[in-house]
Protein 1
Amino acid sequence: MSLFEFRLDGRSGRARAGVFRTPHGKILTPAFAPVGTQATVKGLTPRHLSEIGAQLILANTYHLYLRPGADRIAALGGLHDFSGWPGPILTDSGGFQVFSLAATRQVDDEGVSFRSHLDGSMHRLTPEKSIALQEQLGADIIMAFDECPRPHDRRYNEEALRRTHLWAQRSLGAAKRDDQALFAIVQGGVFRDLREESARFIASLGTPGVAIGGLSVGETKPEMHAMLEAIDPILPEDRPRYLMGVGSPEDLVECVARGIDLFDCVLPTRMARNHAALTRRGRLNLRASAYAEDPRPLDPGCECYTCQTFTRAYLRHLCVAEEMLAATLLSIHNLSLLLNLAADLRAAILEARLETFVDDFRSAYRKHRPEGE
Amino acid sequence: MSLFEFRLDGRSGRARAGVFRTPHGKILTPAFAPVGTQATVKGLTPRHLSEIGAQLILANTYHLYLRPGADRIAALGGLHDFSGWPGPILTDSGGFQVFSLAATRQVDDEGVSFRSHLDGSMHRLTPEKSIALQEQLGADIIMAFDECPRPHDRRYNEEALRRTHLWAQRSLGAAKRDDQALFAIVQGGVFRDLREESARFIASLGTPGVAIGGLSVGETKPEMHAMLEAIDPILPEDRPRYLMGVGSPEDLVECVARGIDLFDCVLPTRMARNHAALTRRGRLNLRASAYAEDPRPLDPGCECYTCQTFTRAYLRHLCVAEEMLAATLLSIHNLSLLLNLAADLRAAILEARLETFVDDFRSAYRKHRPEGE
């Protein structure tokens, strides 16, 4: 029997509620994965993550390869032991960062050469090398090496898609560990035919899960939704679908409704460091003077530690005084919001009331709510 | 009956073990108070502080007066409600910061005028104003307004001592709340006769506790120890003695042995932010490459969350990658070390084996232990 199993517990429209079993625990879907780029979700301990109900943490192969080195993490027992997070972990392939963060780079069918954004040193990633690194890191879910082009460049997307499919096959051929689920990645920019072609090809590989890359990188929301709707009927029903790098509250709701099971995004923790709080009714800029004497919790409906313990006035003080605790407390809240939203979406699917849930969410949610309410 | 009571449970030489009762809980002494300058111990939640056994937190009146304002904190229920820390809190008078942090300042017998280090705005503190601010902040233990001169300037110390005593009386006269214990402060630099004179005067005021200021500000350790030895027989036996701003592991041991009950110091959290770890055998610089693959806990004997969960290699990675979590995890450890050391000193006093404890500590403790052990 495989160490991985995806079971669908319910559906509501295109939306799905399932359970994905991994060697380090099960993931109830839809699920949102907090991002721990450098083997730490910035400002939170693994215990914080357990307490807010995180099920899956993402780590970035590109960053960990450059520092401290995948070999070091392997020598220390892999990412779980290294980071102290005992639950499921997912690593990306490094491809996206090579194309977005690295300095100069040269890509050919064999792989990509690039300069480290840290010290300018030269490195080379290939599908085989990416898989070898991810096997050293030891996550439960790993990704095929892919090329992530800008979404609107047709010619580049055609070329990148050819390469991504070639690299998916080579990634599969290179993988040796049977305790890691290797997901291949659908690309194709905003082009419906390319996305469909990619979904068919990736589905044919029979991987235990399918990732969808190259979205939320410059296209519009309607373009993103159209791509998800195009590939939904093509993707295998019995495998989890992971939409990479997407995860605002509104994205979670809209994309779950379009058949997505797994998400990751830096948004909740990055916004926390910029002193913005997510709520189901919009965003709050906690630095605003309107909150200076506001005795209410950040988000009155929320049961997270931050909302149960502190006032907006105190959080605003921490933000204005540039205290580290601001980012920690806002990260606890912002991640709780996404994790609870995913859990509520799951419940709504299982109870066949997703449509109402989505309608209610859309009408309550307004971006950039006026400060001070 | 007073809301405050100090009971001595045991003695060993000059050292004392006691219990100080306050409206927000009791403090077992000797005790170390983590510093939460801006109403937050940098990087730690109140729950972290409870878990590591903190009994008393210090907050700085100068900082909170300037931002967010003592009136705002009062309107939000005082420091306990504001910060989410339910236990005992101590505020200083603002005097030390005015003399060390503020830009230009002018002092006369009436008070001190100074410019804010934040925005250059002009402010004035007097004994009456300091007490009024501390009453708004609402800590359990508050301090008389004092002048803290450089320790070796005889003439300045004589003048400052006269003023400090005058201000202590005015502070006492200004205090209205009976749920705050107002401590007066012994000054006198490194001059034995001034320290003795100050101890006699401050003791005569009958305050529920006595603070000792102006040490660890430039004098040598032998000078500090000599001052403590000089005033020990003069200070009242039945009141807690608080040595302000002092609190390295070695200071804790040496000063408890010289009759001190309460300490506060930014050292453990500041060192944590600079990636240094305290142990009972010396300090570790966690950025050192020697730790890059070190699978041991930071401090093998320690039971704190950091030492129970993470390797030196992981902590070193967080430091080198400039991750916020490094400061949080090292603060948890460094504060745990001080809090456990204070608890162990208390046990040694109660079990009449302090002398052996101090000897053992001194022989194990070497500063700047070579990297990698």
Protein 2
Amino acid sequence: MRCEVVAVGSELLLGQIADTNSSWIGQELAAVGIDSHFQTKVGDNLTRMVEVITAALHRSDAVITTGGLGPTQDDITRDAIAEVLGVDLAVDDELLATIEGMWTSSGRTMPANNRLQARIPVGASAIPVQPGTAPGIVATFDFHGETKVLYAVPGVPWEMQEMMTGFIIEDLMDRSGDTSIIRSRTLRTWGQSESGLAEILADEIARLDETDSSNGGVTLAFLASGMEGLKVRITAKGANETVVTALLDDEEARVRDIIGPIVFGLDDQNMESVVLDLCASHGLTLATAESLTGGLIAQRLTAISGSSKAFRGGVITYATDVKTALLNAPDGPSVSEEMVEAMARGACATLGADVSVATTGVAGPDSWEGIPPGTVWVATCVNGEVETHLLRYKFDRTRIRNFTTITVLNLLRQRLEKL
Amino acid sequence: MRCEVVAVGSELLLGQIADTNSSWIGQELAAVGIDSHFQTKVGDNLTRMVEVITAALHRSDAVITTGGLGPTQDDITRDAIAEVLGVDLAVDDELLATIEGMWTSSGRTMPANNRLQARIPVGASAIPVQPGTAPGIVATFDFHGETKVLYAVPGVPWEMQEMMTGFIIEDLMDRSGDTSIIRSRTLRTWGQSESGLAEILADEIARLDETDSSNGGVTLAFLASGMEGLKVRITAKGANETVVTALLDDEEARVRDIIGPIVFGLDDQNMESVVLDLCASHGLTLATAESLTGGLIAQRLTAISGSSKAFRGGVITYATDVKTALLNAPDGPSVSEEMVEAMARGACATLGADVSVATTGVAGPDSWEGIPPGTVWVATCVNGEVETHLLRYKFDRTRIRNFTTITVLNLLRQRLEKL
């Protein structure tokens, strides 16, 4: 079963709003094993809409359009579908009564324009789920000798989503006859480049490629995500939840055998949530002392709801004398091993924490006191013992700060996991 | 001139990551008057990539692909382009040396896979701007009797953006033969909703619509940008820089007459850079005391290069006793006017600063000591005088923190501008 998505709206092409609907629909389709090979954005132009929908019907069994079902002159998805079907639009009296009822029930009079929304291509039906005033459309029809289905849903995300989960997904599953399911699991990693990871996992990918997947199977994909690290996504397809879970478990074990040390979490976990969970599970409190990262570490930790269980607070010591005053740091150079060690100790002392991370360095773009940008000292302190590391980055200011943040949290994670 | 965008990557179709590149490119193309009628997402599949790129070339003068230029087996945009052009791929020795240099200069050895990135379709060239290890490609060629151009840029947003602004936009303008120039200027605003702004500026937009724009002219667009506020973009088209600058100056004056008080900056300025500039110009130093925002304000300030001229540092007082210990705050309730006032004073005292901002509140999702999420106290302190404000948001945790950050910086900006 193949299903394409066509997102309608000139504002999408102009970048005035992002098309998040296609991504969401793609995710839902993938979860039930329906392929979506193409997704297209097209403006509010009848000829181009008809062209795109027709091309999609040639390639796929089903097409979902989003947007263009409102009551204004710009909203011409109904007209485009009628043209694709080669039929006229006709007012559906029942639908008109429903729409009118929505207005009158809230004490308002329906504007004349909204009558347009009750027009449906002859032979098509309204989608039985209708969360807002815009009805969706479903049309089953013969297209060059094959039965195809065309759905039109509104562009308003929650209305679209209710129609998808309340009707379209099940309708598509019924039509596909495929009862297999697809699930995925993501291993979060830090410390390898995308090409390095691909090289390390090349044999495993080759093994998967050679495995017979006619009754389902497993695939691996890498997603580079900047300061979120590299994600290794395992996707499995099989007859039912038990089969798919077994496939995922087996593959996760194989991948962890190969890249275990750089895996820091799964799925929705991120580096901060893992560190906070480790602190909480060991009954340890956490503090930060940031110079180079200027609050970035603390703000990521506090973005996690429930972080107050472990996180006590932090200091941002940008001016050198603030390092001395707040953290009892030495008078020596600001970017040095002595300084970062003193900052990590000072954070625990000043903020009354068991564990801390500290950063100092040159974010650039310029050198500072002869030290080139990208020179970074980080430290972790666990129950009074400090470890320091020197990092050297060839990045811009933003990436130097981002990579320092995750790297020092990862160093703390590794120490906490050994406790 | 018509230019389509093809976003490559199975992860985009699966909704694992959103395709924000197409929107961004669409915006940039629109700003210089280039039409983008179709934007397509396609997976990492050679046949389907070739199909989509070919269809796009039939409809448009230029095509930009994003993604699929990495070093892994999945990255086959180079192969797809070679097939569309009907040529082979060949290693470009100069390019290979550049890529290898990027690895060796940071003391690493280039993985063998990265050699793949130096392959370019015969007859095409590397895009002269190359921010990361993935080179872009530009190919000019005859397509069914017409000269077309095909650009391939990486999917990593900042690399893509540097290639677009550093090369592709200008190259497209040159090819279009349109000698008029287009420039835009963005007014950064904070404190109005998009519909509110549209209503306030409706008369001005109507005036522009009625103005003869056959020889160029001016348009207004709104871009909602979350915690970056609403951007009002003025775009002017005219024969030369003098004409266009006069159009922009005139329109900026008209818009400022209407919405002046909510405009905080222009173009690349953001709230933090404006606040830092104001501090520096008055010779004032700045500090932060954050509870609710947990370092977000400080990290935004320190993201600005040169921030150390005014910013001395900050404290993140997440645990209540840290507020008392570090900021000499009272023993009373953590989320209160008294607390935020004490935090603002304490920040100036503890960090030795002339000016400070402070935040405390309930970020949610749960209530805290009976206080509902979204209840936020903020304070600004300028030369010893504190002003406090109570904010109430109906947002999620992230938006509560983000909106608090910009709102308190905006309050400080307004006070500094009156000095």
